[in-house]
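Task: complex structure prediction.
Instruction: return structure tokens for all chains below.
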Amino acid sequence: MAVHATSLAALTRDAGILFGADFNPEQWSRATWHEDVHLMRAAGVNLVTVGVFSWSRYEPQEGRIDLEWMGEVLDLLADASIGVDLATPTASPPPWLGHRYPSTLPVTRDGVRLGYGSRSHFSPASAIYREHCRRIARAVVERFADHPAVRMWHIGNELGQVCFGDEAAIAFRRWLRARYGTLDGLNEAWATAVWSQAYGDWQEVLPPRAAPYLHNPSQELDFRRFSSDLLLELFAEQKAIVRELDPVRPVTTNLMGFFADADYRSWAGELDIIADDAYPDPADPHGPVDAALTQDLMRSLAGGDPWMLMEQATSAVSWRMHNLVKSPARSRLESLQAVARGCDAVCFFQWRQARSGPERFHSAMLPLSGADTDVHRGVRRLGADLARLRPVVGARVPANVALVWDWPSWWAGTQEALPSDRLDPLATLRAWYRPLWRAGVTVDVVASTGDLSPYRAVLVPSLAVMGTEQAANLESYTRGGGRVVLGPFSGIADTHAHLHVGRFPVLLRAVVGVSGEEWVPLPDEGSSITWSDGRVSRVETFGERLRADGARTLATFGPGPLEGCVAVSEHDVGGGTAWYVGTVLPPEALATLLEQITPTGTATRVSAPKGIEVVVRGGALFLLNHSRGPLRVPVRHLLLAVPRVDEARGTVVDLLTDTRFGPMDEVVLEIDGAAVLMACDGNGHPTAELP
Ligand code: GAL
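Output:
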């Protein structure tokens, strides 16, 4: 298979799954660096991210740059055959920058200029900050582009800063001019006739700063688009410097899952590797399923190619109010879950636990108490496990159901002054994902304007913003034989956040065969709906005053403000079918509905006990035990899902343990245990084709 040089595959082809962490040598002595490298090797570490927070060490005073110490670090790593993801150090400018040039510091919505002494204290709109970023990035890349340790480049860290200051205002105006051309265009797009907001001069246009009352929703939406574009510009500017000096090695930055301040969909094409930071809360019972959704998002952003888990914690983080630890087995399971869902690089924050600074209580691969610890033994075990998973490296994760997710709809669905602030789009997306996850249905997370043709069903839990392009895409997919499900409060507004005029969902009314006239937040006691088969479900939060215009009614509202109205409907249109869900269904009812809608053959054909996550990746079947106890799974229940198992006469091997199982055996999964099964020959060698 041809491997693009500027990709994750180019790195994993020889190294296998990448395994490592952020490494912050500036916090430690030279003697410690040597010990670190020795212990990294022993743990199977093959990649470390360095230089993320090195700017003040590189350049303690303006213009006085010393990169030699980093040269030593890279030499040590190269000698140990440990690759490096080298960062531009722009996430935390040195104090002199903020001190000398206060305009580089970010300004909040309330007009407060933030100080330095922490990190991320920069405005992405600041010309001076950007100039210094280019300068230091160029110095670092020029010096190390030919270093044998460097495998890839990392721009900044978790780009997410939003600034409301004067330079941000100038940049916002520039962005708006490019989008709307004229002030008339802007006034129309922002509907400034409302509340006497019409602009007569570009200088009057501002970010949506703290104001006496509610903000203009169209302005808010554009400011979020602009802020996302501005951060991407900051990334692209530093990436261009890398590209100029190193035409080949991949460049990335670390994303933050479902992060609201950047539209990662529009970023994805700029990143050579999709890389994510994931810190699921061990206290959250939905943690594993929400993590899976984020992983599916990352894989989808990567176009189905492998992605990178750039950061996670081995045990506790230190930034929540009460930081639960994770067992080494739990941490291992979380990493294996990512691999199951397409990840080929498993990294942590950070290698050695800090003894100082705000993150001194944050776990690491090497705790302060040393290598003779459960956490570190867990790390070594994981390193060995990942080395065993070579047969899945580069493999794709088949998915034939899509969940639609657009950032502008998320933004529009979380603005001020909506019918209800309880209908959170991300919560809705997660709620719809949960029954699919439990049923072993792997999904891609796609744009409403994306190519939907590969999918046998497309679920649209929450899509407030629907322009003609989005509507046409969903309509042609449905008419062409697709199955589409639309959730409540979808298709209500155009791309400027102006409501569509007419019975809703205006642009898709003919497709869904129902139409609505009023959004109806429900009283706290909720309401009930009755399904056509007589079942009754409690519903809560939100409903819509809908009537059937050709669709079959699947459920009708009971007593309350929506009595007699359609709650859920189904409509055949063209060769396909469209469902409309006009309320917030309880988990069981949603699960039943989605099970009926997702066609047979979309789930991994496995009847595994509850609590076991099942994912097929390439030729392997991953079984991940998230339940509270050990579970046994008969191999014969799994066989339909194991690729090429027929030729292997039902014999499978667990890549993690090399244990061979026949069709009459059982796989035993301990708490937080996992198995990765592949069809194998009589000698236990996997028979599936390697990618
Ligand atoms: C991330 C960040 C790391 C570290 C980590 C701690 O957000 O990129 O530098 O702070 O959190 O969990």
